[in-house]
Amino acid sequence: MALTGGRVAADLDGRTVPMDMAVRAEPGQVLRVGSVTSGLRAYLAVRGGIAVPPVLGSRSTDTLAPVGPPRLEEGTRLPVGDQADGDPFRQVAPTPPVDPEPVLRTVRGPRDDVFTVDARRTLIGVAWTVTSDSDRTGVRLDGPVLERRRKAELASEGMVEGALQVPPDGHPILFLGNHPTTGGYPVIAVVVGHDLPLAAQARPGTRLRFRFVSLAAARGQLRIGPMGNGRM
Predict the structure, then answer these.
(1) What would the pLDDT profile of 174-207 be if each residue is shown by its tens digit?
(2) What is the C-alpha separation between 67 and 85, in angstroms, rounded?
(3) What is the pTM (predicted TM-score) of this model?
(4) How far apart are CA 62 and CA 180, in angstroms?
(5) Which residues pair with 58 in a beta bridge?
(6) Which residues, in sequence order, are CB contacts of 47 under 8 Å at separation 6+?
(7) Which CATH number is 103-231 given?
(8) Bridge pairing between strands 163-165 and 187-191
(9) What is the pLDDT, as a whole number, of residue 223?
(10) Cβ partners under 8 Å of residue 193, min gap 6
(11) Taking residues 134-144, what's their average pLDDT?
C-alpha cells in the first residue's frame, strides 16, 4: 500500500509510514493516519485495488447523483482485490509539495463572450480565495464580481471537469471530479486538466490565480514558460 496526496503523519503498528512509498502490511496490522497538514486530501492506494462491486463499470461513488457503492461509514469493511501481477512497478514515487498559492493554466471560453472585457481581465488579474462552501463537486471562489455584458440565461450545456462556471452572483465555481454533467450558467474558461490536482488540494482560505494559455498548449499538456511560451 502507499499514502500520497496531502501530507499526513501515519504509522503501521507504531512504526512510521513514509509518504509516496510502497509499504507492506501483514494481516492484522493497523494503519493509523493523522490529519492532513499540507493540502486538503490524502489518498491510500492498496495493491490489487478495492474489490467492491462495480456500478456502471466504476468502483467510485458519485455523491452528487448518488450512483455507485455506498458512502464509507465507520465500521465499513473494504475487501482488497487480487488484480496485481508481479512486483510493484515503483517503490518510490514522490509527489511535488502543495503550492500555497497555485497558478492554474486556463483556456478561454467557451462562453467568455458573455462577459465584459474587464471581467476577463479580472479573472486572471486577481487572486481568488477558496471558500468553505467547496467539495469534490466544485470549488467556490470569493473575489470581485465578474460582470456579464449579456444578462439572458443560456440553455443547459454539457459540463467538463475544470470548467469555471459563473452563476448570477458573479463569483466563479471551478468544477472538480464530481461535477454535474450539465449546467445553465456560462463558462468563462476551463482549467487545464494537468493543473486540476492543484485545485483539489486547495483548502478553504487558499488564494489561487488563473493564467490564460493557448488551446494548443493545453492539449499538449506543455510546460508553459514565464513568458507564456509552450515548452516540451
Answers:
(1) 999 888 888 989 999 999 999 999 999 999 999 9
(2) 30
(3) 0.82
(4) 10
(5) 55
(6) 1, 22, 80, 84, 88
(7) 2.40.100.10
(8) antiparallel
(9) 47
(10) 161, 162, 221
(11) 94
Q: What are phi and psi of 208, to 5 degrees?
A: -135, 155
Nearest Cα to Cα of residue 41 among 79, 11, 77, 3: 3
pLDDT surpasses 60 at 145: yes
Contact at 8 Å (CB) between 79 and 52?
yes
CA proximity to 1, closest of 9, 12, 74: 12
Confidence of residue 89 (pLDDT cuts 50, 70, 90): low
- Position 131 scores a pLDDT of 96
Q: Is the pLDDT of residue 171 over 90?
A: yes
Which residues 6+ apart lie within 8 Å of 226 measured at CB?
none
Q: How far is CA 63 from CA 43, 45, 51, 68, in A?
A: 18, 20, 19, 8
Query: Can you say how many angstroms the Cα of residue 28 is from the centroid of all Cα atoms in its chain?
Result: 33
Domain ranges of the chain: 2-45, 103-231
Q: What is the CA radius of gyration of the chain?
A: 20
pLDDT band for position 90 (cuts 50, 70, 90): low
Q: Does the structure show a pLDDT above 60 at 143?
A: yes
